[in-house]
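Intended use. Records such as the F-box domain-containing protein entry shown here are meant for training and evaluating sequence-to-structure methods. They are not intended to support clinical decisions.
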Amino acid sequence: MHLRWGPRRRSPRLLAQGGGPDLISDLPDDLLLLVLAGLPCVSAAARTGVLSRRWRSLWPRLRQIVFSDVPLHSLEAVLDRLPRPLPLVSLIKIRFPNERLPWPIPEERLVDAASVNSLLRAAARLEPEEFEFELPTNLLDGPLIVDLPCFHRATSILLDLHPVDVILRVPTGVEFPALEELHLWACTADIDALLSCSPRLRTLCLSNVYSDNDDLAVSATLAVSSASLQELVLLQTDWMDGVNIVAPTLRQLTVSFPAMEKVSISVLAPMVEMVAWRCCYFELSIVFGVWRLEQVTLQTAERPGQLPSLQIHASANPIFVSEEETFMHEIEKHMFAEFSVLDLHLETNGHVFGALVFHVLGMNRICSAMQKLKVILQRSSVKEGCSPHCPCESTGWRSQTISLTRIKEVEISGCGGDDHDIDFLKLILKCAPRLKKMIVKLSDGGASSSDDGCTNIYNIFKAYSSVELCLS
């Protein structure tokens, strides 16, 4: 019997049916690793080992290890089975599959703190440059206390813990000497401890994150103090009662949070250049006359030629109780950065607005900084005509004299052209000697070119020939 040694030669018939040379496996290793890196999960990369022995030795050399379809209870064992030594791992990304489980969920499938902490330690042992971890909320049973282990080489960490009761702790001795970027979602954490062990941190993003102390007492005041931070993002959907920021090298600040009542705000960031700040009020406690404060926004310029602005939203309702000092003091808390535009969004609900606007303009920090005034009136179908004793006319604003020497442009949208609106325009013209342009946009159903109100608007500008009027 004659035996043949060496590679078998394929017949012309097999070649014609697609069983030709394996051209993909002949590619260089670097190209094949790029192919494997494009697969959605490292388990899929491992399964390519069925193609040939050469593929089996490739996937352990991946520098980016992504898990997206491996159950949590199996994941730690998979990490421990990775061949050693591994190449320098640039990324470990852990996402869990959405499993359809019976209800109630079997106890053996539920996730506890011990399994989560053990998995994090296994990932830390691989020393990735970037680490991303998302906790599976559908498998959690009650609150978890998660201890964050040392990631010595990590420059970026992202922890998405979802809206569950998770307390993130930093054990004694844990450090992140290379960490430059940290993202946290939905947890309670000791922010001071995280910052103190991250001396190179440049970017901090917190979304629905709350502070705790050593006694695990949750605080609705979020405090961030760092000498290295250059970008800070704070996004909250649950109400806060305070924000305290000390960041001497901070360049960019983004903050959005709701408040139930008065808030405590302290921002010490002398080098900040870009600000996007928004606070929404959901209680009725911040009022002036009939006006309730709804939102304050502070925004620096986003493009060349744009001016930084302070935006105030308020709505009128006669059931409110006047607290003049509270209203203005609350607005002043948000004025920690320079602005040149005052943007007022007023929902009138049948009430007049002159008293409120001039009360705001009377603030020293506003009248000394403002170069442009925008008033956007959201009129209701109720005809505006308050009684002499209505709180919206409570301050005798028509007789006020305010020095608006820096203001150069005024824009009013929703002007009705009635006596109140005419008096408001007259007082603006009187108080702003350097005004160059006024844009008046009439409300639907307001004055038209044939109305007396519109004629009166044109007439009052005859005495101010240096002011350009744009009426539409």
